[in-house]
Prior knowledge:
Blueprint: H1 6-15, E1 25-27, H2 29-35, E2 39-43, H3 53-62, E3 70-74, H4 78-90, E4 93-98, H5 104-112, E5 116-119, H6 124-138, E6 141-142, H7 149-165, E7 171-175, H8 180-192, E8 197-203, H9 208-215, H10 242-249, E9 252-256, H11 258-272, H12 282-288, E10 299-303, H13 310-317, E11 322-324, E12 327-329
Parallel strand pairs: 2-10, 3-4, 3-6, 4-5, 7-8, 7-10, 8-9
Antiparallel strand pairs: 1-2, 11-12
Helix pairs in contact: 1-7, 3-4, 3-7, 4-5, 7-8, 8-10, 11-12
Amino acid sequence: MEEISLQTIRMAQKTIGNIAINTPLIPSPFFSQLGGVEVLLKLETMQPIGAFKLRGAANAILNLPRDVTGVTCCSTGNHGRGVAFAARASGIKAVICMSKLVPQTKVDGIRALGAEVRIIGQNQDDAQDEVDRLVRDQGLHDLSPFDDPHVISGQGTIALELLKTRPDLETLLVPLSGGGLAGGIAVAAKSIKPSIRIIGITMDQGAAMHASIRAGHPASVTEVGSLADSLGGGIMDNNTYTLDLCTRLLDDTLLVSEEQIYHAMQTLFYEERLVAEGASCVGLAALQSGKIDHLRGPVAVIVTGRNVDTTMFANIINGQNLTLGDTHIAGRTYKRR
Ligand SMILES: *Cc1c(COP(=O)(O)O)cnc(C)c1O
């Protein structure tokens, strides 16, 4: 096992400094009033690929052995986009494997960066089978979206920026899927400030890390359509890093419903005029629905990405009903509740 520490995260910050940006941390008057504490939004939506995943992907690619000529990965969309972007910058080949659940807008974004895209099967496990085949047959390097020490250290750089700007932060709300983001942030934040509280948040259907922490081993989940499509997929049966980090370092994990995510996306747009994808809004959804007990401020909410299909986003803004695979979400015209 390789080390993941404050030191590897500081090294990652130097490594990715020319490719990922130090994103803005902005106050949200609306959510501050709602939560009764100061709420700040960390806008990873402003990264060049529209999501934080560029941090981990760039750190991993810039640390590859020199003889690696190409990478492959499975992805719910944003990791693939980060890998495609960083691979192009480094002049190496990238093949991104995704399931049919990945929205077309994410597929198009990856192709536009010059990577090869393969759409395989109905879930992340099927996409991973194709990755394994590419590793065997073409000798490509498999770059995990979350269970890789360089990826985790890259995502952890968010916490360095947060606590440099606001050392007084008491709570971090972090969207949780494979746990690379939450794990990396938790290592850095708790090394700098052990008393900080870190809460991981996921949609209530197919919440693999939430179930795995409770089970004490990687739990398998059924992947279904969700507004938080970027949070889909399991944590891998051979999980090496993120289950341990999330079990040890997260203070809590919470689940939110599709309706709550829908409402949070509307709220962020109408009250702050910000566009964010469903996965980015789970923290705000938890705050808004009063799910967080004893919330201590100042709070930073990681708004992780903006790569949402524009037609679907318009439908949400207009309060339309949505159907995502077998998942039906009742629309509702936005009003402050
Ligand atoms: C990948 C992703 C997450 C979750 O990150 P993990 O490291 O898998 O937990 C959250 N939000 C967005 C937008 C993502 O793309």
